[in-house]
Specification:
Oligomer: single chain
Helix content: 10-25%
Strand content: over 45%
Radius of gyration: 13 Å
Largest sheet: 4 strands, antiparallel
Structural class: mainly beta
């Protein structure tokens, strides 16, 4: 099974969310994550995040 891995950097914060961006050439992907979820997972948003996407098996 193939997987897609993307690295995101912190772009900005809102009152309740962190906004992360992944840019590849002219393509831009934006991901909003709740601050409470990121903080409770012990993730430092300033270091960026890595997302792995796989097809769901049913």
């Amino acid at each position: 099974m193939e997987a897609l891995k993307l690295s995101f950097s912190l772009k900005t914060t809102t009152k309740t969310c962190y906004r992360f961006e992944h840019r590849e050439g002219a393509e831009l992907t934006t991901l909003y994550l709740k601050k409470s979820q990121v903080d409770s997972a012990g993730i430092d948003p300033n270091k960026g995040i890595a997302i792995t996407i796989e097809q769901e098996e049913k």
